[in-house]
Design a protein that fits this description.
Order of helices and strands: EEEEEEHEEEE
Structural class: mainly beta
CATH class: Mainly Beta
Strand content: over 45%
CATH superfamily: Hcp1-like
Number of domains: 1
Number of helices: 1
Shape: globular
Low-confidence stretches: 1-6
Radius of gyration: 18 Å
Number of strands: 10
CATH architecture: Roll
């Protein structure tokens, strides 16, 4: 098969993705969960409207306090809402599926667990609520 172009359709791997918080790429996230939307029945037909929170997990970096700064703004009686864009990428780095969380804000930030005998990477997570979810395939 040398010299032939691959024409079959293959599923995209889930490990190659990017996350943007408020227009800034935060490529350090290692896991995203909760990209759910649910259709509910109404008298006029199904309506997309029920969404859950999305959880983002990443390794703790010594000089990275962006998530803590974002949640601290809420503690000061303001809600700093941002657009969060999660993109599933192909092997060339092009977006193939995009989840856009509009007017998102952090609801919970979980620091790493600490264990003196452990040798794992320290991981923190942020749970994000949002008003609407737009799914697109560019």
């Amino acid at each position: 098969m040398s010299g032939e172009t691959q024409t079959s359709i293959w599923p995209l791997p889930k490990f190659y993705f990017s996350v943007q918080l408020g227009g800034t790429t935060a490529a350090t996230f290692q896991e995203v969960t909760g990209l759910d939307t649910e259709a509910t029945a109404s008298a006029t037909g199904p309506v997309l409207g029920k969404v859950g929170n999305v959880t983002l997990r990443k390794g703790v970096l010594a000089n990275d306090s962006a998530l803590w700064n974002w949640i601290n703004q809420i503690q000061l009686n303001t809600i700093a809402r941002q657009t969060v864009v999660i993109s599933l990428l192909d092997e060339t780095g092009a977006s193939k599926r995009v989840w856009t969380l509009n007017n998102a804000w952090p609801t919970k930030l979980t620091g790493t667990d600490l264990k003196s005998e452990g040798n794992e990477v320290a991981v923190e997570s942020v749970e994000v609520a949002y008003e609407t979810l737009v799914i697109s395939a560019p």
